[in-house]
Amino acid sequence: MRASQPGLTFILIITLLASSSPGVGVRAAQANGAHPDAPAAGAIPAPRLFADGVVNTSADEYGPAFTPDGRTVYFAKRSADRKMEHIYFSRFAGGRWGEQQVAPFSGKYFDKEPFVTPDGAKLFFASTRPVDASAPGRADFNLWVVERTAGASWGEAKPLGAEVNSETYDNYPSVAANGNLYFSSTRAGGQGSNDIYRARLVGGRYATAENITSLNTPQSDADPYIAPDESYIVISTTRTGSYGEGDLYVSFNVGGGAWTTPRNLGAKINTATYEYTPLVSPDGKYLFFSRGWGDIYQLDVSALPLLLRREAADRVATSAAPRRQVAVTFDDLPFTGDGGKTTLGELREFTSKLLKTFAAHKIPAIGFVNEGKLRRAGEREARVAVLKMWTDAGYELGNHTYTHASFYRTPLAAFQQQVIDGEPVTRSLLAARGMKLRYFRHPFLNTGPDLQTKEAFEKFLAARGYRVAPVTIDNAEWIFAQAYAQASQRGDRETAARIADEYVPYMERMFEFYERMSVELFGREIQQTLLVHANSLNADHFDRVVAVLKRRGYEFVTLDEALQDKAYEHRDTYTGAAGISWLQRWAITRGGKFQKEPALPPYMQQFDPAGSGSDFKTAKEK
């Protein structure tokens, strides 16, 4: 069933996975047999109707969800004219399933697809009900949740926020033990007519939902059942190669954000009609699913075809997870994003935090300096000393111009002087450590107003011994940083924490976006270069970003090592006011179009009223 125990391993394939210890609720169910509806022998080798005549009737019932003890089932039931649906439930007592009853939170609006969380504390469902009870219902579906109250009842239904719900159809919620929400949606920007999405639970709130691109196709991919430990997912899809209108497929999580290619569960389950709403029982022994207009079936998962064996799964896992490498680059040293309000003491503290994060995770970062920021009355030597903390710790520095000037708005000769004026201190600090000043980073990622000027400047750089430091993982981190610094300075810890919680999953979405783009351009994931800034947000929370990258399988490499990737040899002819990733530049140079980056999370859009963080047409300067 969908409500299985945390850590319980899917035993869909006999030799593939092994169960972990069941919880108390599962043991209680097992004391009465493997599952309340199971025969004495406990074997259901072929699909059969579940609770026929009680849960399954002549009406359309589908999409069951069970409480952790397996003794209460919730399901959707269609009206006779199939124009309305409500959520019903049935309880198992006295050796049989009881009469259907309308769930206390349903019965008025079009409600469907219930899901009980692994701990039994919440029930999610899809509904057309309005947020304002006095308003008419919606034309599309949003996701809602009710929480368990004292007396084993359910509280008031509440809608999920804009981080999850869209203006289109959002359906079939499934929640892992850690609270991460999986669902299907027809929202714009997907790969097909229906896509699988995930919204991570971060700090008690859902981060903006992200498309799980490796699970989706140009067809319909829907109805995700996620294992409590997120080790596997079962979906209903219309992809090419299916037996009928919709088939059930399984995919395994192999770490680093990668999933195995979904595999068809075979002819024992899938037919010429439509199979959907998969889930696995709390004891892990039975697969439930719906077929046709509305019949609920169950069978032993051990009776399914042996699509994979453990050794085969290991091979798939190895091949599915690419070797990922990234060079981490920090701009605007010694510090930025604070509105000039950071004290010297704070500057030392924040710099020390960043450097400790680098050391703890063995990140060979490089920092790009605006030497004009060293010139503050009475603080110049102290600010140089902060910059020296980088070189004393063994980290390389690069030139980011003297005042962070825009090459799009600065004449060539003046911009060249910006480079020269931005050298003396940085070159001296590097020389003291036996290093040379080798890299130049364009402020705002503006590389010139036209191709002739761009090429002339590149010749100037080469003559002074520089190489341009490109960026492939571009992002609007600076908007998060400014808002975070302002909240911190006014003592608003709650807002600062919320911004940080939004920042971390946003950065993962940016990595996913550019990973996919590199595959589209080069047929593989290239060695990436990440741009972020030296600011209080990263001083306090970059270690959380690092944890995400490690989970995605990234190794941290030097900028030198990243640029050995042949992708960086491709020509870039883009010029313009908008600062964009080199992946975007290479695509445009090839005659392609700018691919719109993931938008800021809804919560963060209040800090970017001009939309400069997500819209290419605004000619953003970062």
Give a written overview of the molecule:
With 622 residues, the protein is of the alpha+beta class. It is 24% helix and 23% strand. It contains 12 helices and 31 strands. Strands 2, 3, 4, 5 and 6 form a 5-stranded antiparallel sheet that branches. It is elongated, with a radius of gyration of 28 Å. The protein starts with 23 loop residues before the first helix and ends in a 33-residue tail after the last helix. Mean pLDDT is 87; it is low at 1-34, 306-315 and 615-622.
Please name the defining characteristics of this protein.
elongated, disordered C terminus, 5-stranded antiparallel β-sheet, 31 strands, disordered N terminus, 622 residues, alpha+beta, single chain
Helices and strands in order:
Blueprint lengths: L23 H7 L17 E2 L11 E6 L5 E7 L6 E9 L2 E2 L3 E2 L8 E6 L5 E6 L14 E6 L10 E2 L10 E6 L5 E5 L9 E5 L1 E2 L2 E2 L3 E2 L9 E6 L5 E6 L9 E9 L2 E2 L3 E2 L10 E6 L5 E6 L3 E6 L9 H11 L3 E10 L10 H18 L4 E4 L10 H13 L3 E4 L12 H10 L2 H9 L6 E2 L10 H13 L3 E2 L8 H13 L3 H30 L5 E6 L2 H16 L2 E4 L1 H4 L19 H8 L33
Parallel strand pairs: 25-26, 25-30, 25-31, 26-27, 28-29
Antiparallel strand pairs: 1-24, 2-3, 3-4, 4-5, 4-6, 7-8, 8-9, 9-10, 11-12, 12-13, 13-16, 14-15, 17-18, 18-19, 19-20, 19-21, 22-23, 23-24
Brief characterization of the structure:
The chain has 622 residues and is α+β, with helices and mostly antiparallel strands.
Helix content: 10-25%
Counting helices, strands and paired strands, the structural category is: alpha+beta
Q: In total, how many beta strands?
A: 31
Poorly predicted residue ranges: 1-34, 306-315, 615-622
Looking at the structure, what is the overall shape? Answer: elongated
Q: Could you tell me the radius of gyration in angstroms?
A: 28 Å
Overall mean pLDDT score?
Answer: 87
Q: What's the story with the biggest beta sheet?
A: 5 strands, antiparallel
How many individual helices?
Answer: 12
Beta-strand content estimate: 15-25%
Distance between the termini: 48 Å
